[in-house]
Amino acid sequence: MKTIAVFFALLLLSCGTVGPARMLYWEETMAPSGFQAYCARDNNYINREECGGGWKNRKVGAKVRGFEDLEEVNSLINRRVRPGTDPNLYGAEDYWAIAVTEGDCEDYALAKLDELLKRGWPISALSFATAKTWLGNGHVVLVVSMPDGEYLLDNLFAIPVPWWLPNYTWEKRQFAGSRVWARIAKPIETNR
Q1: What pLDDT, in 10s, does the model give residues 6-44?
Q2: Structural domains of the chain ordered from first start
Q3: What is the pTM (predicted TM-score) of this model?
Q4: How far is CA 54 from the centre of its chain?
Q5: How many CA atoms lie within 13 A of 154 on its CB side?
């Protein structure tokens, strides 16, 4: 699977358009209301790393396998979870929950984060970001910081992709392992 991702990356490089390796933060802003409610529910703000609590001092597990983990987790959750909407599943407009069998984009992202944490990934490498898709729909993804850049685990893509690849209008991003969010600066395209 990494071969496919490398092929697409090389194809993009040969076309001359590449994005910056990392998203740039602009200014602090409010977290999405669904994320705030998720962290407040059941003391998640104390117990869950993505809400600023939990096992912050935990060491990275020996099972972390880099990009291979990202491919496996993205594929596993995308196959296991069926698309669903918050109003149909929870009777609410924006309800964040870890997807088990059905969910929408933020539920997929929470499930992927949960799986990576179980595999020993540090919360400092994992965060959520919001965007508008090419169709103008609100969307949430899991952003994974790697030494060579940031990748998205996204229910709309079969493989992890560089954050700049999708035609998304980025809105805001969580500071990893906290309840603090910031607006994302618009990237400047580079042609090489």
Answers
A1: 444 433 433 444 567 788 878 899 999 999 999 888 766
A2: 25-53+62-185 (3.10.620.30)
A3: 0.83
A4: 19
A5: 24
